[in-house]
Amino acid sequence: MVVSEGKVWAKQRKAFSPGFQFAFLKDLVPTFAGKTQLLINRFAEAADTGKVLHFHTEAVLLTVDVICQVGLSVNFGYLTSKEPPKIFYLFNELLTNTAELARAPHTAWMRFLPWNYLRSRNIQNRFDSILIRVIQHRLTETQQADPLATGPRDILGLAIKTAKDAKAEEGGGALDLEDVLAQVKTFLFAGHDTTASTAAFTVYEISRNPDVEAKVLEEVDRVCGGKPPSPDDLNRGLKYLGCVVKESLRLWPPGGTARIAPPGATLQGYDIGGRPIYLPHLPIHRDPDYWGPDAGEFKPERWLDETYVAKLHPCCYMPFSKGARDCIGQTFALMEVKTLLAMLYMNYTFKYACVEPEAQAYRITSYPKNHVPVTVHRRSRQK
Ligand code: HEM
After folding, report:
1. Is the CB of 2 under 6 A from ligand 1?
2. Euclidean distance between CA atoms 83 and 80, whole angstroms
3. 254 CA to centre of ligand 1 in angstroms
4. CA 168 to CA 33: how far, in whole Å?
5. Any signal peptide, and if so, which residues (predicted)?
6. Could you tell me the domains of the chain?
7. CA–CA separation, 183 vs 187, rounded Å?
8. What's the whole-number average pLDDT of the chain?
9. CA quadruple 145, 151, 154, 160: dihedral positive or negative?
């Protein structure tokens, strides 16, 4: 979906949209909570020994596990195995390889050098073969015209249904396995990297701001009462935590906006028609002209000031981009991050364990350069 255009994109977006509404996503909250509990268990050893953990690395394990579970209905067991399964390393290799080859447009030809090409193909093939096994297993399980009627209502089910409907419109024929694979891969990648980065930068900011941490702990204890958050807690109850995540996405937006300019478009007199345009979000999100003199400071309270928010430029905050092609997974991501943070802060607090402050590093999306090293500290709930 990310790379498709025109009518093909519109059909895909329409087909996947119902799966990303709150009404559907609320049923995923127990999965988010169950996976977070596994992460809480993983952190126990670090809390007992004082060992430093890289929070970002742990958050990636969680978000990959979640997206595979709700996307494919497969439990790869990332959070329970001592050594993460093979597919985890392939996710990483694939992202790094794609980013390395895409980084410098003037060296794009390098991807066609035989050794680079073969290396990329090899990683792709190993990754695809795991997914193709999952897709084929589902296809043999759900032979019916409507796979959602028989199989689980996950991203794979939606992708198979979309591909079947497209074939039926064309008058029949074999299902396009490549298309299903491409859709599933889009969601697996778009659905984990940015979410892990957001969770990690949020923990980093909370660890540097004791007043924010105190408010988060008070709210989590009061609203959730020691239990995993309900959909209603996520939607309305955890208001301050919502502002904390929003502010973290302002200072550390993991994605940008990429578009192809329409034919004939100009920018300050330059012909940009048909060219790729990339809009980085970070400089807009930190511009004092939009946000005021405290633009660079982490202040979740700014989002509680209705007068201030009402005066903001409509496009000065866009972590999920804007318009028809904005992020389809934004409610999913916010529910997942809030569940994770609420449950973690019920049990632990985190201290940043590095003298160098965090910075953004870039692959395809951005992530914390030091991976947020932290020590983990047990806490008990305030009554
Ligand atoms: C905090 C987490 C996330 C952030 C910051 C984020 C950010 C973005 C941004 C900025 C775009 C627009 C890219 C562009 O215009 O070039 C986008 C698109 C997209 N995102 Fe996300 N995303 C997040 C989580 C997710 C999740 C959890 C999923 C799926 C489960 C997802 C799926 C997608 C898809 C499929 C698109 C393409 C939409 C289209 O072209 O119609 N994202 N995301």
Report:
1. yes
2. 9
3. 10
4. 39
5. none
6. 19-255+286-378 (1.10.630.10)
7. 7
8. 89
9. negative
CA diameter of the chain: 64
Using CA atoms, how far apart are residues 104 and 109, in angstroms rounded to an integer? 10
User: Which of 1, 327, 341 to mutate to test ligand 1, by most ligand atoms within 8 A of the CB atom?
Assistant: 327
CB atoms within 10 A of CB 87: 18
Ligand 1 atom nearest to 332, measured from its CA:
27
pLDDT of residue 167: 79
Q: Which amino acid is at 156?
A: L
**How many whole angstroms separate alpha carbon 9 and alpha carbon 15?**
10
- CA–centroid distance, residue 323 to ligand 1 (Å): 12
Nearby residues of 200 by Cβ (< 8 Å), 6 or more positions away:
55, 56, 59, 367, 368, 371, 372
- How many CB atoms are closer than 10 A to CB 266? 10
Q: Can you read off the two tokens belonging to residue 128?
A: 């695809």
pLDDT per residue over 302-338, tens digit each? 999 999 999 999 999 999 999 999 999 999 999 999 9
Residue nearest to atom 36 of ligand 1 (CA): 327
Asked if residue 102 has pLDDT above 70, the reply is no
Please tell me the predicted confidence (pLDDT) of residue 179. 82
